[in-house]
Every structure is written in C-alpha cells, then in structure tokens.
Design goal:
CATH class of the largest domain: Alpha Beta
EC number: 1.2.1.38
Family: Belongs to the NAGSA dehydrogenase family. Type 1 subfamily.
Radius of gyration: 19 Å
GO biological process, one term: L-arginine biosynthetic process
Function: Catalyzes the NADPH-dependent reduction of N-acetyl-5-glutamyl phosphate to yield N-acetyl-L-glutamate 5-semialdehyde.
CATH topology of the largest domain: Dihydrodipicolinate Reductase, domain 2
Strand order of the largest sheet: 3-2-1-4-5-7-6
Subcellular location: Cytoplasm
Shape: globular
Number of domains: 2
Number of strands: 14
Largest sheet: 7 strands, parallel
Distance between the termini: 20 Å
Helix content: 25-40%
C-alpha cells in the first residue's frame, strides 16, 4: 500500500490525540509532523504515554515549517483554522479541517453562531462537507474538506437518511442530545467541564444557541427545503459518547415501513450505519471507541422519534476525519476503522 505523509496541526487536543492513534495504526498514512503550542518540544510518546506504535516525533509550534509533501489535518480552534487553512491551500496541499470554521455556507448564520468575523468566506466555494454518507463522490476528488461537528453528525444523518419523507415534515424538528465531557470541552480546561462539576450532575447548556444547530439545518435538509431545528445539548458525567433523541412531526400519520425502508437501505450500504429494531436498543456503550452511528425509531400518531448514538471522538470527529482522508487519498473507506 502506498504511503501518504500527513501533518496534524493541533495534535495535542483530544481529537488530535484520537486521530494520532488512528493514523499510527493505518498502513497507508505516515505521520511526519505534529504541532501544539502547549507541549512544543516534547516527544509525542511523552505527551501520549498511553498510546502504542507512535512515530519518533517531537511536537512543534503551529507556525513551524511543515514537510512539503505532507497533507494537512487541522485539529485547531476555529480562529486558528481560519488563519492556517488558506495558507496551506495556497501551498497546494490537501487540507481537512476539524473545526467549525468552514462548515456553514451562510456567513450571517456563521458569525452569529461562532461570534467572530469570517474573513475567508470565499473559500466556501472550494470546501466539501465531510459526511461520506451524503457526499462520498465529492470527497474522492476534494482538496479541502470540512469535518462535521459531533452533535451535528448525530442529527444530520438520521434526518437526511429520511430522503423525500423530509418534504412532509411539519414544524420545527427538536433535537435533544446528551454528550460526554470530551464532546463539550475538547481543548481547554474549564471548570464547568471538570470532574468535580460533572460527577453526580447532569445539565443542559447552550440552549438554542449551540453552533451546531445551523449546521444541522443546512445539511440535515440538503437537497430539500430547509426546516427549523431546535437543539438542546446536555452534559453527561461520562468521558465519551453522544445519544440524541430527535422528534419529528408530520401533518398526518406516517407509515413505519416507509421509515424502516429508508434506514434499512442506509444500513445495508453504509459501512458505519447500524439500524436497531427498537430505539431502546441504541446505547452509548455500543458505539464507544467505534466509528458507528446507531439508529432506532418509533412512531406514535403523527410523531416520529429517532434515537441515534455515536462516539463524539470517533464518528463525531477523528474517526470521521480518517474516513474522509481515506476517500481523499484513494484508500478503502473503512481502512484503519473496522478492526478497532
């Protein structure tokens, strides 16, 4: 198998660490450069003593020169990605960005959700949204990919997989999702995400203001009329995993066989989508440390309830990034992800 060199800018964060582990065990990728302004100069094995088979690399600062032949993974905060992505694209490199900076095509919605000015919005004409189940063919030829958000993936896929049934949806879609702390505070140490504040506790946060809400709206309804989504995230006292409950209303009753057919088609052809016979079977423990998105549903009257689950560090971040990298560089889509 051919070897492709990669650099991870921001490898010191939780998602960067997860992707470092995945790439280290991938037969087609060679990790040649890692950065972190916080642990600059330290050996990667010193920073990640719990990971095996890591390359002989030391961390550099974000602005250090990157080997010319390396593709770029940006696992950086939003503002850093805004600065670094254009630089690497101008050098002719392939870039995949794990931040939210290049996901939304509506600049007004972006700046309201992310609370800063987007000065490189012209690049949105080049970017491909990194959800293989929806944009696989585009990803195979992409030079610039924006990896989806974790909460967003847990809602976008279940909604989008409904296909033409989405045209009949009435009123706002309600997304009620719960995440482990690694999905809510993945980079900086904040007291609200610390163990002492989540142990024996459970709470909502960013109610109706979370930055993934417009992302759900744009891509959950891609190819059809966009509907409003009302999203409330919650913080669980666990490390990893997201479980989302999605409430969808229709003007008249909907046949469960129609929904099951849509989901069965996806589960049969998509390597990382699994459909359960009941929503109660969908659990966080079944998807932890995997790249799967699990689904189950039930209908009562005019209301469809879908329960989905994914690992926020895998299908919600690093695993999905590797899935996208495989497509971008011509490797089997599941390489490095099916033997975890």
């Amino acid at each position: 198998m051919k070897q492709t060199k990669l650099a991870i800018i921001g490898a010191g964060g939780l998602t960067g660490k997860e992707l470092t582990k995945l790439i280290a065990h991938h037969p087609g990728f060679e990790l040649v450069h890692v950065t972190s302004n916080q642990v600059d100069g330290k050996h990667i094995r010193e920073v990640f003593p719990d990971l095996s088979h890591l390359p002989d690399l030391k961390f550099h600062k974000h602005d250090a020169p990157v080997p010319k032949e390396a593709g770029i993974v940006l696992a950086t905060p939003n503002e850093a990605s805004l600065e670094k992505a254009p630089e690497f694209l101008k050098e002719g490199r392939k870039v995949i960005d794990l931040s939210g900076t290049f996901r939304l095509h509506n600049q007004t919605k972006f700046e309201k959700a992310y609370q800063f000015s987007h000065t490189e919005f012209g690049l949105m004409d080049q970017v491909v949204f990194g959800l293989p189940e929806l944009f696989r063919e585009k990803l195979k030829n992409a030079n610039f990919v924006s990896n989806p958000g974790c909460y967003a993936t847990s809602a976008i896929l279940p909604i989008a997989l409904l296909g033409n049934l989405r045209k009949e949806i009435q009123g706002p879609v309600i997304v009620d999702a719960k995440s482990g702390v690694s999905g809510a505070g993945g980079r900086t140490e904040e007291i609200k995400f610390a163990y002492t504040n989540v142990y024996e506790n459970f709470r909502a946060y960013k109610i109706l203001t979370h930055q993934h809400e417009p992302e759900m709206e744009e891509y959950g309804f891609v190819g059809t009329e966009e509907k409003e989504i009302l999203f409330t995230p919650h913080l669980l006292p666990i490390y990893r995993g997201i479980l989302a409950t999605i409430y969808i209303s229709f003007p008249k009753g909907i046949d469960p066989k129609q929904v099951e057919e849509k989901f069965q088609v996806a589960a049969s052809k998509e390597p990382f989508v699994r459909l359960y016979s009941s929503p109660e079977e969908v659990e966080i423990r079944k998807i932890q440390n995997t790249n799967f998105l699990d689904l189950g549903f039930r209908i009562k009257g005019n209301t469809l309830v879908i329960v989905s689950a994914l690992d926020n560090l895998m299908k919600g971040a690093a695993g999905q990034a590797l899935q996208n990298l495989n497509l971008m560089y011509g490797y089997p889509e599941t390489e490095g992800l099916v033997t975890l």
